[in-house]
What we know:
The complex is a heterodimer of chains A (341) and B (340). Chain A has 341 residues and is an all-alpha fold. Chain A is 58% helix and 0% strand. Chain A is built from five helices and no strands. Chain A is elongated, with a radius of gyration of 90 Å. Chain A starts with 33 loop residues before the first helix and ends with a helix. The model of chain A is unreliable at 7-11 (pLDDT under 50). Chain B is mainly α and 340 residues long. Chain B folds into two domains: 16-138, Alpha Horseshoe (Leucine-rich Repeat Variant); 190-340, Alpha Horseshoe (Leucine-rich Repeat Variant), CATH 1.25.10. Chain B is elongated and about 95 Å long. Chain B starts with 26 loop residues before the first helix and ends with a helix. The model of chain B has no long low-confidence stretch (mean pLDDT 83). The interface between A and B is medium-sized, with 23 and 27 residues.
Amino acid sequence: MTSVLPPQKESTSGTYTFSSRPRALPNRSKYRDPVAELQEEPTQYGNIMYDRRVIRGNTYAQHILPVSAQPDPIEIQRQQEVRRRAAAKKRAKDQLRPRTPEPVEGRKHIDVQTELYLEELSDRIVETDVECQTDAFLDKPPTPLFVPAKTGRDAVTQIEEGELFDFDIEVKPVLEVFIGKTIEQALLEVMEEEELANLRGQQRAFEELRNAELAEVQRLEEQERRHREEKERRMREQREVLRLEKETAEKIAARVFAKHYLADLIPSIYSNLRDNGYFYDPVERDIETNFLNWLVKDVENTLDDHVLGRKVLDMLIREVVEKRLDVFQQMEQQQQHNASA
Amino acid sequence: MAHTRISNKMPPHIEPARAPIAFGRRAIPKLNEELASEDLVTRQCALASLCDLVHDPERAYETIETGCLENLKRLLRDKDSVVRRKTTEVLYELSVHNVGRDAFLQNDVILSLAELLDEPVDICRVNMHKTLEMLSEFTPGAAGIVDAGLVPQLVLKLPSELVEIQEIILDTLHFCLRVNVSQALASGAISILKEKLLHNSVAIRSKAAQALMGICVPLEGKNEVCKQNIIPILVRLLKDRHPEVAAKAAGSLMIATITTQGKYAALKAMAIPPLLQLVSSPVTEVSLNAIKAITTLAEAPEGRQELLNHVAVLESKQDHSSEIIRRAAGTAVRVITWKP
């Protein structure tokens, strides 16, 4: 028969609380009564595998226990409902299970063994008691030296000359390093030389081009210079020629003009001299200068005398007239005075 | 407790001639320290390892960054010839890389190298000259060499050195002449080059002709060349069997005949027939230089007259595959058929 555990209590005074109390296994019958099983309440034992407080699996969606130790009343209700429903379901399933039909009126079902060898049926489980007891401590004798039993066969070995150290094998890594380094170095140097050779080839090509271009440039310069000099020279010559021509033309013109000028010179000189009176008749000149001078002077004097006489006459007349005028004026004045008086 | 060392003995020193190279970034600084050590063997081994490492451009950059150049400059004056030889090798490797060359110019390595001009050991000199040649290949380097006044010294060394060193010197001179010609002219380079033009070795002849080409570029060079009667020698070289020599000789001619004096000298030396032959050569450089030389000669009236008979050859070159040859041929034909 199953015994029901004392209900779970949180013992506040105890140092240790059990989730599932250890218990002695009850004597149970060999064959469990199927009817009795139905009455079984779910034992208040805690299976650690299904304990909500033990965290299993990933903790990303952790169900955090409510703060209070008392479970939420709603939670309790829900759980009870779930339990009830599970029990109901189980009961329903059990009822659906086909069972042996009920015994007929007046008879009873009974279990019977039908095998060849009968088996004793009893509720009592075969138990045997075994006990053990150590002997009282005795003084232990010293353990004998452990000499393992000699097994196998004796064998002898000796290292011969040259077996421990095989030159060919040992030298391999050293050689590899040597050769590797040498070849690496050699490769580097060969690559360098190749690069140099390439560079030199390029250099050569460049130099050819450069030399050719240099020569071309210098040649063209030279050509240019020569042409220019040639041109300058020709132009200079041309200018020379022109200048000479101009000079000759001027010379000719000057000569012609001079000739023309000078041709006229002599008659004009003569005419000028004649005009200025350098050629003269001396007698005529003499008469002109001396005689005529005297004549003219004389005439002048005579005339002057005439003029003088006229002037004297004039003065006389003037005086007379003035006197008459004065007399007349006086007479007029007297007349006027007489008239007014 | 476990130690990091596996055994009590140090790992075996595989190559006794080289210093062991530390791992990763520590390699070059460690070698740098070893370079400054007093012990001869250490220095030699360190130099040998450094020499191998410097082929890699990243290592070369590291070498310069950690300032190995000071030590290397000091080691150039070392008493031991192996040390000097290895140092010059390392410097040569460094000069192959661009960062190396820049660093050389900044740290005045040229002057230190110049001290080795009179070095008794041959291989050191070879390496030193090779380094100088590498330096001179780019313009600031050539300018540096010219500024250091090395050109006259190199020219003076030319007659007395070994053949291979002469080749290297001629190359160096060729690049330096692009920067500055007057120094070389002042030291009488033309007469020295004249002898070299008749040397047995093909390389020397062609390089001497190339150097002459460089010298002829400025006017004084051209005048000197005409004065020293080099043009007949050049014309003779045009008939040389080796195409490089002929190419460079034609190049020198094409530049030297730009002056009127040069033109008449060339015409007097009967330059035209060999030049015409060279025009049909398969090597691009040869035919290009020959065409250019013909163009300059055609500027002179006598040359033009003679070349009018051969215009066909030049016209056939006008459909050559290379563009410069076509242009050159076109110019030549134009110049030949020009009426004043």
